[in-house]
Amino acid sequence: PILEVLKELWPGAVSIVGGVHASNTTPILLRNHLVDYVLRGEGEIAFSQFLDQMAAGKTPGGIKGLYTRKDLVQLGPLEMAEPVPDLDALPLPDWDILQIDGYLDARTGWRNWLMPPGDKRSAGFQATRGCPNKCTYCSAHTVHGRNVRLRSVDKVLEEIRLLHEKYGVNLFVPWDDLMTANKKRLLAILSGMRAMNIPGLEMQFPNGLHVGTMDEEIVDAMVDTGCSAFTFAIESGSEFTQKHIINKRCNLDKARRLIEYVRAKGVMSICYWIVGLPGETKELMAESYAYAKSLSTDWIVFSKAIPLVGTEIFNKYVEKGYFKADDVNQWTGNSFYLRSFDTEEGSAYDLSDLVCRMSYEYNFVNNISLKDGTFQRAVDIYSTFLGKDPNNVFALYCTAKAKA
Q1: Per residue in 314-350, pLDDT tens?
Q2: Which residues, in sequence order, are CB contacts of 68 under 8 Å at separation 6+?
Q3: Angstrom distance (rounded) from CA 78 to CA 65
């Protein structure tokens, strides 16, 4: 729909698409008459070459990772664009070309939805690219690869300083897949941020923190740097699922220890959970949820397993015949909250019902703040929730219970 509108407004404009989705669906996108070019992989180098050729009045071509509809005739093995070898060589983003206030206002930008934005101005940044882990539900490696490339500490701090001094940003949101890959470097970045003495300094990690790269020293440093909510990407409480289905191999004992440590420091924690993975039986889902119920985390985001193109579980769903890889309508309509196909483990309806029950039971009926008497935290969480869903009966009841 967006391309249709753009083509109507500027019929002669050239369209080029990129990103994770485009990198993994190149032939499909090229069959769309609205798409002129697809750029696979990281775009900085290839897109610059593309623009240079366009500016010179040439028809773009001969660029690694760039494909057009004409290539469909002889489309062989697909290449990725040349990745950026030295991330420090990239200039800082030119924020001035945007209507920047709309992007930086935490009410319209990113901030954990369980927390009111207050007077925060938020901005994201990247300190690393790539992740060595092989989680079967993740497609990030198809663009950034499995080798972790690091920006220098000085370059990261330069960008943070600019965002604060020029635009008043005080909530910083790293978008890295694995910013915690190198502990020494991470602690240096956090120390440098604290040394800036930014009023109201805050950090959050929406992509999820990998338990395997965390420890108490890092938690302390993050809290000291204003981390207001720890988002742990645990995904499953079943050892079997961890090892044999999602290949995350999260240490569940360590995860529990870290969550308890964060709670003892008075900071909010949130966990990400995936339910309905290929091969995940009802018994494994029950085991996963039993572990979840034993945690003292403030909130768990229960999401349905969905087939992100480029992931191992996408291929497994295709192998089992749940949908065809080239039938876009069968898999693009899925989201973390909606799945359109049944599996041998259960129907889409049953999965929705299970995820809903888990969410309401954990986050409302048995919320940890209601159980351990930290009632003000419960009131704060539910008040923010009601700001988005004012008629939610569970949130109204739990708020009343916390205030009683």
Answers
A1: 999 999 998 888 877 767 766 667 788 899 999 999 9
A2: 30, 36, 37, 38, 60, 61
A3: 7
CA distance 144 to 250: 22
Q: pTM of the full predicted structure? A: 0.91
Return d(Cα 283, Cα 288) in angstroms, integer. Answer: 9
- Going through 100-218 in order, the beta strands assigned E by DSSP cover 122-125, 128-129, 149-150, 171-174, 202-204
CA neighbours closer than 13 Å in the CB half-sphere of residue 99: 2
- Main-chain dihedrals φ then ψ at residue 308, nearest 5 degrees: -70, 125
Strands (E), 120-207: 122-125, 128-129, 149-150, 171-174, 202-204
Task: Give the span between the Cα atoms of 203 and 174, in whole angstroms.
Answer: 8
Q: In the numeric block, which tokens belong to residue 364?
A: 């409302």
The tokens of 110 are what?
Answer: 């990113």
Please give the backbone phi and psi of residue 174, each rounded to the nearest 5 degrees, phi first. -65, 130
As a whole number of angstroms, the distance between CA 98 and CA 79 comes to: 32
What tokens appear for 155 in the block?
């370059």
Sheet containing strand 122-125, edge to edge, reads: 122-125, 171-174, 202-204, 227-235, 268-275, 299-304
Q: How far apart are CA 26 and CA 72, in angstroms?
A: 10
Q: How do residues 344-403 score in pLDDT, each as one tens digit?
A: 999 999 999 999 999 999 999 999 999 999 999 999 889 888 888 899 999 999 999 999
Task: Give the integer Cα–Cα distance in Å for 93 and 84.
Answer: 15
> Which residues, other chains included, contact 267 with Cβ-Cβ below 8 Å and sequence gap of 6+?
223, 227, 228, 229, 230
